[in-house]
Amino acid sequence: MLSPNNQPHQGEPLTFPAAQAALLTPYLPPPPPPSAAAGPSRDDEDEAPAGSTHSPAVHVTLTYAHSLDASIALAPGARTALSGPASKAMTHYLRARHDAILVGAGTAVADDPGLNSRLLSPRPVVLDPRGRWAVHEGSRVIRTAREGMGLAPLVLVGHPAAVVEERRRVLEAVGGRYIVLEPRAAGGRRFDWADVLAVLRREGLRSVMVEGGAGVINSLLAPPGNALVDSVIVTIAPTWLGQGGVVVSPPRTAAEDGTAAPPVRLTDVKWCPLGEDVVLCGRIRR
Ligand SMILES: NC(=O)C1=CN([C@@H]2O[C@H](COP(=O)(O)OP(=O)(O)OC[C@H]3O[C@@H](n4cnc5c(N)ncnc54)[C@H](O)[C@@H]3O)[C@@H](O)[C@H]2O)C=CC1
Ligand SMILES: Nc1nc(O)c(N)c(N[C@@H]2O[C@H](COP(=O)(O)O)[C@@H](O)[C@H]2O)n1
Fold first, then answer.
1. CA–CA gap between residue 49 and residue 66 (Å, rounded)
2. Which ligand 2 atom lies nearest to the CA of residue 115?
């Protein structure tokens, strides 16, 4: 049984073989120093982790599971299990190897996820520019934090008016909070990814695992966000979810002169079978 950084296990034991973990290592941020067990400090030196290609120094891993037809869920709002037991264990291992885990409001609303790890839990971060996520006492991420099985979320909203007082109280009672960030992208509807990473860095978070859903993934894979991605780890499940699924397919973009930009492609690619799934690791070709 593997525990990153030899931290105590949370909840039921989890097995993820060291040999498989070693295959992922080149795509992951460096392990936190043992002193990071109590959570990342907010006044760390701003030094770039090895392999980081951007500043501020936040390692970005994009990771999710999809079907053979690139769907991450059967339908909008439908929680859909794609990962088998082995790749689910990998997800918990990956979560434990990052300071933060990021999802969009659509996932928070649809899945009511725990966003913790049975190993060492990351800080959940929810992108919710318009305040769609009605977080409450019974939300899983809140219960998980209250029970000491995970960390409380940071929720990034686009305007102070998106903060509902009762939700703020619920978040803050477990140590989470709202952070207002100006949505400077997509005509004021989305955050600029560099701004999101700057917020994380200010919070002392040096690595983030971006988990989904499709809105978040497609926005991050489009330029200029994709320049900030350090590595991509995708679980491919041996199933077709069929038409009407929630699909990962970033928008086609054009260069300034109107010509089509080249498709986003991975390089430094490794394929690893994991149970009945296959895990694809790579870096975005620059
Ligand atoms: N199979 C998998 O690995 C995963 C599957 N999912 C599935 O994905 C589905 C949810 O996907 P979506 O509906 O697309 O929701 P989503 O989780 O991508 O959230 C979309 C929302 O996130 C916010 N957002 C996204 N990018 C943003 C940006 N750059 N700046 C500011 N806000 C931004 C916006 O409010 C947007 O409406 C669910 O059914 C869930 O089960 C979610 C995560 C992983
Ligand atoms: N890796 C992976 N495989 C799947 O098959 C999935 N459906 C997901 N979904 C993501 O995990 C969240 C739910 O898990 P927790 O409750 O947080 O443990 C879900 O919200 C998606 O982000 N991931």
1. 29
2. 17
Residue 118 has a pLDDT of 86
**How do residues 21-37 score in pLDDT, each as one tens digit?**
999 999 999 876 665 54
- What atom in ligand 2 is closest to the CA of residue 64? 1
Q: Which amino acid, 208? A: V
> What's the mean per-residue pLDDT of the chain?
89
The domain spans of the chain are 57-238+273-286
| Residues 49-78: tens digit of each pLDDT | 444 444 448 999 999 999 999 999 999 999
Homologous superfamily of 57-238+273-286 = Dihydrofolate Reductase, subunit A (3.40.430.10)
144 — phi, psi (to 5°)?
Answer: -60, -45
Q: Is the CB of 131 under 6 A from ligand 1?
A: no
Close Cβ partners of 117 (under 8 Å, ≥ 6 residues apart): 10, 92, 93, 95, 96, 150
User: What are the E-state strand segments in 120-186?
Assistant: 123-127, 154-157, 177-180
Q: Running DSSP on this structure, what letter comes out for residue 185?
A: B
Is the CB of 121 within 6 Å of ligand 2? no
Q: Tell me the CA–centroid distance for residue 130 and ligand 2, in Å.
A: 23
- At 6 the pLDDT is 33
Alpha helices per DSSP H over the chain = 18-24, 85-96, 105-111, 140-146, 165-173, 193-202, 214-221
Supply the ipTM of this predicted assembly: 0.99
Integer Cα distance of 27 and 281 in angstroms: 7
* pTM of structure: 0.91
